[in-house]
Amino acid sequence: MEKKMPFSQLIAIGFMLFAMFLGAGNVIFAPMLGQEAGTNTWIAMGGFLITGVGMVLLAIIALTRGGGTVEKLAGRVHPLFATVFSILLFLTLGPIYVVPRTTSVVYEIAINPLVLDKSNTSLFLFIFSLLFIVLTIYLSWNTTKFVDRLGKIITPIFVVLLIVLVGKSIITPMGSFGEPQGDYIKGAFLKGFTQGYYTMDVLAAFVFGGIFIKSISAFGIKSEKEVSKLFIKAGIITIIGLVALQVSMAWIGASSVNPIGYMANGGEVLAQSAIVLFGQFGIYIIGTVILLTGITTNVACLAAVAEYFERIMPTVSYKKWLIVFATLGLVITNFGLTTILTLASPILLLLYPIAIALIVLIFANNLFNGHQSVYVGTVIGVGFVAILDALKEATIFPEAINTMFGFIPLFENGAGWVVTGIIGFVIGLVVAKSRKESVTLINIAGEEVH
């Protein structure tokens, strides 16, 4: 019989998961959306919250229904696809993108404003990133201590600081919302929808499943059913926190245009807004918030990727993988934030639509009897346009791609994959029926029934 977990412990585990998700992307993209969307902020946030927050809970539930790990979920398409997708996903969420991005953002917002000698920026970045990565390794070393370190100590500190910052912006608003800019003038919802990709939280939900299970092992929870229940409960706590955070960040951005003007990125929006609200002391408040959210993200992502590679290549231990990927992240960090963002954006536009397709398919599994051809057809349809979007983002023949494939509905808005995914779904269903493929249903407990 499973022992009943105290509510306080459940909250701590929920805070731990919230801390894993709450990284630099969560804090810097919504303020920028608020600035650019202006009076259309809440329309844009409707789309942003769907992909940046709502899909996160669906991803967590999908993961529990699909077998508990991203490899099992993606394996419904094909084993080779599962391997390629998982490796690309984990490397992106770890040393190639998230860890370097997070470390660079923390430096730019929390450290760089305090550096007087701007001529040695590269040296200061290297020293800071080295110390930051070493701290990440230390906190990631023992996964059973995640709840105590992340859920009971770090998370409550930055939550209080964020409440102080947001509370001040509500009590003494910086200004009124400005006029919408660019794509937010007419396509605010769809623009917000695609901007939600950049938080990477849906992808993170796939990645954090394994490390979440490992981190709660100390509580004596063994059965897959109980682990799944706890994952979903912690996910609900996380979603509540993320919604409150994103709406608050968008509010700060939208109300900041009058006193600070339009900024180049969300980090600058937050830094300048904090100064307007609290004077020079605001730099320390926002710097501490970014520092703490950055360390929790780095810990979660590095631990997750090390845990995954230990699982597929057990001859190399978790701790050795941790050092390997931390070192790789350190090297990439020092290429600079602009380079990191430029290189990673196409990968996100490729991975995110496929991840969303997998989530939808696992929920709809019983409607099409779990036929493999439906999974294959849908992923091919989605992946085809996702590859085109990634090529455009990488500025590889963008005009030619738009000319050749502009006839696809929603293609110019970055959502053409929805249409081709539906077409692939239908074709896959026809193929499955014609071949009389086997049926694989999922019952209410998340177990397969053949």
TrEMBL record:
It comes from the Bacteria. The chain crosses the membrane at residues 7-30, 42-65, 77-98, 123-141, 153-177, 197-219, 231-254, 281-309, 321-341, 347-367, 374-394, 414-432. It is a multi-pass membrane protein. Its main location: membrane. The keyword GTP-binding does not apply. InterPro entries: Brnchd-chn_aa_trnsp_Livcs. Pfam families: Branch_AA_trans. It is found in: Cell membrane. Keywords: Amino-acid transport, Cell membrane, Membrane, Transmembrane, Transmembrane helix, Transport. Belongs to the branched chain amino acid transporter family. PANTHER family: BRANCHED-CHAIN AMINO ACID PERMEASE BRAB (PTHR30588:SF8), BRANCHED-CHAIN AMINO ACID TRANSPORT SYSTEM 2 CARRIER PROTEIN (PTHR30588). Component of the transport system for branched-chain amino acids. This is Branched-chain amino acid transport system carrier protein. It comes from Sporosarcina psychrophila (Bacillus psychrophilus).
